[in-house]
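Subject: N-acetylglucosamine-6-phosphate deacetylase structure
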Amino acid sequence: MVLPTGTVPGGRVIVSEDGRIAGSMPADPEAVETVDLTGHWLVPGFVDIHNHGGGGASFTSGTAEDILRGVQTHRLHGTTTVVASTVTGEMDALAQRAGLLSELAEQGDIAGVHFEGPFISPCRKGAHSEALLRHPDPAEVRKLIDAARGQARMVTLATELPGGIDSVRLLAEHGVIAAIGHTDATYEQTKAAIDAGATVATHLYNAMPALGHRAPGPIAALLEDERITVELINDGTHLHPAAFGLAFHHAGADRVALITDAMDAAGFGDGTYLLGPLEVEVKEGVARLTEGGSIAGSTLTMDRAFKRSVTVDGLPVEDAVAAISANPARLLGMYDRVGSLEPGKDADIVVLDAEFTLKGVMRKGDWVIEPLRSPGDDPRTLGRKSRSAGFTGTDSAQGSVTDIRGGWSEVWANRLLFGMIRTRKPHTRKHAQARGTVGPGVKAVIVTVTLNAALDITYHVPSLTPHTSHRVTEVTERAGGKGLNVARVLAALGHDVTVTGFAGGDTGRTLRDHLARVPGVRDGLRTVAGATRRTLAVVDARTGDTTQLNEPGPTVSPTEWAGFLSSYEELLAGDDVSAVALCGSLPPGVPVGAYALLIRAARAAAVPVLLDTSGEPLRRGVAARPDIVKPNADELAELTGAHEPAQATRDARRRGAHAVVASLGPDGLLALTPEGTWRATPPGPVRGNPTGAGDSAVAGLLSGLVRRLPWPDRLSRAVALSAATVAAPVAGEFDAAVYEDVLPKVAVSTSPSGV
């Protein structure tokens, strides 16, 4: 089986009765039915973000029943998640079509809507009706977004046309993917669109200027920019193998999404079809416009794309899985549910033989095609329609299959191993009606995670001068680390808090003694063999400057890390947990992707999660799609490569964060969220020790989240708490009088479009 960590031989997948992947066997082994798939590959269900139809059905013009038939056709070829793409049409017709498709998306039959056209270039129209093309007017783009009722996933547009850049910004602000395609843009125009928020290249190479050595055009700009995911149609017609390999070489496996761009004829055969208003002739599996001969989509299915990528183009299986499952799932914001074979996700599984021919498909724990039971069986005759697609009975061939689950099922393959991924129970959280927020009168717990806690020691000296001795006038000692500072402020605001992480040695015991004296904070730290680190802050009384010295922390063993994961999941299983904060650096021995794993666990438990870290843990964590990420300006620049805060904030959100709140020091906060974009500015500078000001901002954001406050109120609290912390003598405390004074004076304004 292919896991996110690679291909590992031996093992099993366990499918629980709710149609999700489990990490351990149920208590009653008699409840398990086993399917032995020795000699096969198990890979995640395929995710197609660009698909116009199949099985003789068009997503642009078909009835709801037609659309479901098209969806089911692609499921029979391994596509367990599909976005329905439309082609250019009249605006009113597209808006009406968006309404129908949004209903199917709300039912879970499709994963949303992709509008390919009408906002494309007549110079690169491909198989789109030129008479219906129009410039990308932001008002008309907004009309389609609104018509899709929150189910618009992507809009392809020629960004060089009038209104293109403003439309890209509009899409980015509404959390809709802006895709550059059917474009005649120059290299420079394409870069401008990327800077404005575009993140996808629609079927790279096709319907755009060729790569030139003097005029590199959009292809070079799209391949070189790490913010862009490039779509590739690997059917042997749209792309030469060398062009396919060039894209993978320059973009890397984590920036490619394999697509079908399929039209009605996929899975249905040669003949004459309509693509929008245009007639298409399909001959020997290649679709071309009857008039003019332009390629008109494809008849590709994802199983063929996968097999060709591995057997013809020589892709490593892991790279093909990333391009056909994980990367498109991340683009859609669905990686917490689909895109990899990990506990807690939907049991979407594709079974392939040693030659990478499809032999079975499971979607949400139900077989769409049950794997062969004997060498002579035809897998299409053993297919069962997925109940979630609104079908019952069998495929067009005769026969039915037995649902193997019987409560639980166990799928074995000689290339499968679940490794160290842990079990996760299904959650039906009482407080999850607003993704973890709570109503009046409900007591809720906020969990703060501090994997590298510290005993904070602060020395105050009259004046700090290098290379001399100093007399310390005051010493303070307290439990520290970013998450503990957050917990202390939250408790002072009236919240119940549980802190977890690691503590060990004499410093760990001292830290826990300090923690026990904080009202409202429960100690959930795990004991480790190594000693908790110390941080030393030296405060210069003359200048007010602080010099910080930080120890690395204890080395955490694999057993200690596994024990923490178990206790963390137990915390998440509690019905009273309202939010999680993941804060600070990682100690030696903890994997660099630890926060990404903890974020996925929280999302699977329907608990909102905030991330506050830096470096590689931040990069990996953002990709796991936390609800809020709160970097400072330097951390943002390191993450994105952009030094202008507005641009860096946009880039960080495109990488996966649901909302980004950037700390700008004395200039306050910049927030980019699905609900809007704001700047929150304090009334003036506050003199004091800034250590812990960012932690207090995190506490303010979490407090506002669980109390369901609107974003401007959350930001006001965060800024006021930061200022009040600067005025306090030590981190993790705030001056209540300063907080009350500053709070009504914080200026919160809506930022300009595109920030």
